[in-house]
Amino acid sequence: MEMETKYLLLSIAVATLGFLLWYALSTSLRLPKSFQIQYDVNGPYVRRIIRRRIAAFIIYGVIPIILIFSFSFLEVSKLSDLNINFNWNDNVMKWILILLPIIILFNWRGAGSRYNLTEYPEIRVSRWTPSMLIFNALSWLLYLVALEFVFRGMLLQSALLVTENEWAAIIIAAGIYSMIHYYKNNQLAGQAVPFSAILCYVTLDCDGSLLPAIFVHFVGGQITEILAISRHPEIKIET
CA-to-CA distance for 190 and 181, rounded, in angstroms? Predict the structure, then answer.
């Protein structure tokens, strides 16, 4: 079997079977919403959220790295051999400057919506300290780095190697990315398609660098969380 085909099969397996494993381990995702939105009295639920982010980092980040390099499955010596890197270049800066105002405006407009305040912040406590905000951000960052590594890294690049067509690769990566968000709601799953397609295109234009996707995804997520915390009538930020 050629390396390109093995690369694609591994990527699809990590993206799909990895999601199923993560979902099975994430018991909080299957709890009733009425239970999830309780404040302070539900410490175990808070810890479940942190654990599921760490679990995603292991499933989408650590395990694929082990499979790639420890068993010589793909016979590569570095990530750049798979068209994955974290390099800074002129296009990275260009796309960050283009996308950052858009993501800020988009998240700002939806911050006070009923949907946003119901879903976010994921950690439901009524009083947030600066240390909690930092810890929440770091756990989000771990989760998003691993997610981008699989979907804008492995899956996108392996599909491109096999199809030799950028748009086909983008459709494959964006489609599967949207599917793993279907458990939330139809609106978010639908939004995930253009969001993922844009980040895929940006990644290819940046020669495989994941920095723009990670930065934009992280900033967008943090804006959503912080605005939800600040605008929620039952939540306060302590200084």
Answer: 9
Q: Which residues contact 216 (CB under 8 A, 6 or more apart)?
A: 95, 96, 99, 100, 103, 199, 202
> What is the tens place of the pLDDT at every residue in 24-70?
887 666 555 555 555 555 566 677 788 889 999 999 999 999 999 88
| Tally of domains within the chain | 1
Q: Crossing angle of helices 156-163/186-205, nearest 10°?
A: 70
Cα gap 196→167, rounded to integer Å: 12
CA atoms lying within 13 Å on the CB side of residue 139: 19
Q: Which domain holds residue 114?
A: 3-237
Model-level pTM greater than 0.85? yes
The dihedral formed by the CA atoms of 108, 114, 116 and 121, expressed in degrees to the nearest 10? 110
How many CB atoms are closer than 10 A to CB 37? 14
Q: Which residues pair with 127 in a beta bridge?
A: 236
- 120 in Cβ contact with 184 (< 8 Å): no
